[in-house]
Write a structure and sequence with these properties.
mainly alpha
């Protein structure tokens, strides 16, 4: 449902005030990228398939290496996708709680 003219004006005014009051935050918010909807799921699937290929084809070195590459690439993508969604490891929580 689209916004009517009054709602669009109100939204534009709020946005203008936001940029005026805290331009640094506004620039930071603009830089945030939306993670892909299926990025985490696809990465998780790649991890599972890569692990299965490595296990199933241990005796076939070329196929096992390809499975390992898929596993590492998918795991890296999965971690990046989780970080974009706000997930943090326990190590990061420990660093945040240290006194300065």
């Amino acid at each position: 449902m689209p916004l009517d003219d009054k709602e669009q004006r109100i939204l534009a005014e709020i946005e203008r005030q936001f940029y005026e009051e805290d331009p640094e935050l506004a620039r930071a918010v603009k830089k945030i990228e939306k993670p892909a909807r299926f990025g985490v799921r696809l990465s998780l699937l790649g991890v599972v398939i890569g692990l299965a290929v490595v296990i199933a084809y241990v005796s076939y070195t070329v196929v096992a290496v390809a499975g390992f590459i898929l596993l590492v690439a998918s795991a890296t993508s999965l971690l990046n996708g989780l970080r974009l969604r706000g997930w943090r490891s326990e190590d990061n929580h420990a660093e945040d709680s240290l006194p300065e």
